[in-house]
Design a protein that fits this description.
Layout lengths: L3 H10 L6 H13 L3 E4 L1 E3 L11 E4 L2 H8 L3 H19 L3 E7 L2 E9 L2 E7 L6 H12 L7 E5 L8 E2 L2 E5 H5 L4
Parallel strand pairs: 2-4, 6-7, 7-9
Antiparallel strand pairs: 1-3, 4-5, 5-6, 8-9
């Protein structure tokens, strides 16, 4: 997540003077040209849409890599999350970033009143990562499907209190 103010401050540190308002205008233009997608935050279980804390995802990961460069070690989790987002919108879901207290759910996707919740994580190799990824979803009190998408193969398909862990490729080729 980032804000126009943070972008403006970063650019000033790089000796590029640009106001937060101009940054907002550029982000809006990039969204209008479908270069990037703005995903707003939504309160889980409520109707509140937050005006700050949005995330942005690229429409074309190849263009993203051409502009930003590609470092597999630093970027793979970002690319996974971006790919899941693109898949959800291709499946005609309206997608939000979920907020549950001080926790974040990567994606709350709604299609015709039916929701799914998705957490994206590179790997789950220790208990603290599992607690974070599954724990956020366990706190949601409705019975809509919940997924943790990873690159792990060892425990993929395992059901953790109704939450399904899926391999990224299996998720991106499944019918939701």
């Amino acid at each position: 997540m980032f804000s126009a103010s943070n972008i403006s401050k970063y650019l000033k540190s790089q000796r590029v003077d640009i106001s937060p308002q101009l940054t907002i205008n550029y982000l809006r233009a990039l969204c209008n040209t479908f270069f990037i997608h703005k995903v707003v935050r939504s309160e889980i279980g409520g109707l509140k849409i937050f005006e700050i804390g949005e995330k942005y995802y690229f429409e074309d990961l190849g263009l993203r890599n051409a502009i930003v460069g590609f470092n597999q070690r630093a970027d793979i989790h970002k690319l996974m999350e971006n790919a899941v987002y693109l898949y959800l919108i291709q499946q005609n879901y309206k997608v939000f970033v979920g907020k549950l207290g001080d926790k974040e759910i990567d994606f709350v996707a709604d299609r015709n009143g039916t929701k799914i919740y998705v957490q994206v994580c590179l790997t789950i190799i220790d208990e603290s990562t599992a607690d974070r990824e599954f724990g956020n979803l366990l706190k949601i009190e409705d019975n809509y499907p919940k997924y943790v998408v990873t690159l792990n193969d060892a425990i993929v398909g395992q059901d953790n209190s109704g939450i399904i862990q899926k391999n990224l490729l299996d998720f991106l080729t499944s019918e939701l």
